[in-house]
């Protein structure tokens, strides 16, 4: 049992614990992204307004649903009489990515509940 007090053994244990901590902190999921994906997947189940609007910007995420990519669309919405720019998730097929250009329209479903639920139903190219 003398090896438990040896310096290389202690350093090895510390490095293993630190490595596990770093690994878990790097691969920790983004809670906002998971919440927005959940809103998109359950968009048929919750009540809300459906509008067509022009997104201010969009960006691709690393998340896929089948072969399609999730995109973050920044859309202007008027909620409780106040204009807000909210992020909504939507799916874009790989062969439609080149069609994303300024002036496109998206069909968005949103609810006034707290927290606000927003999801892109369709992208109109």
Number of strands: 6
**Helix percent band:** 10-25%
Helix and strand run: HHEEEEEE
Q: By helix and strand content, what is the structural category?
A: alpha+beta
Describe the largest sheet: 3 strands, antiparallel
Figure out the total of helices: 2
CATH topology: the name is: OB fold (Dihydrolipoamide Acetyltransferase, E2P)
Strand content: 35-45%
Rounded to an integer in angstroms, the radius of gyration calculated over CA atoms is 22 Å
The side-by-side strand order for the widest beta sheet comes to: 1-5-6
Domain count, please report it: 1
Taken from the alpha-carbon principal axes, the silhouette is: elongated
CATH class: Mainly Beta
Please mark out the parts with pLDDT under 50 across 5 or more consecutive residues, or reply none: none
Integer average pLDDT: 90
Rounded to the nearest angstrom, the distance between the terminal CA atoms is: 70 Å
CATH architecture: Beta Barrel
């Amino acid at each position: 049992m003398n090896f438990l007090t040896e310096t290389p053994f202690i350093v090895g244990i510390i490095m293993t614990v630190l490595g596990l901590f770093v690994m878990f902190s790097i691969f920790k999921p983004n809670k906002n992204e998971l919440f927005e994906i959940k809103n998109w997947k359950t968009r048929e189940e919750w009540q809300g307004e459906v509008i067509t609007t022009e997104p201010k910007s969009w960006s691709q995420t690393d998340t896929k649903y089948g072969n399609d990519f999730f995109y973050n669309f920044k859309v202007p919405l008027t909620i409780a009489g106040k204009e807000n720019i909210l992020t909504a998730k939507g799916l874009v097929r790989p062969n439609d990515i080149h069609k994303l250009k300024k002036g496109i329209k998206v069909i968005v479903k949103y609810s006034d509940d707290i927290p606000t639920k927003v999801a892109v139903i369709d992208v109109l190219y």
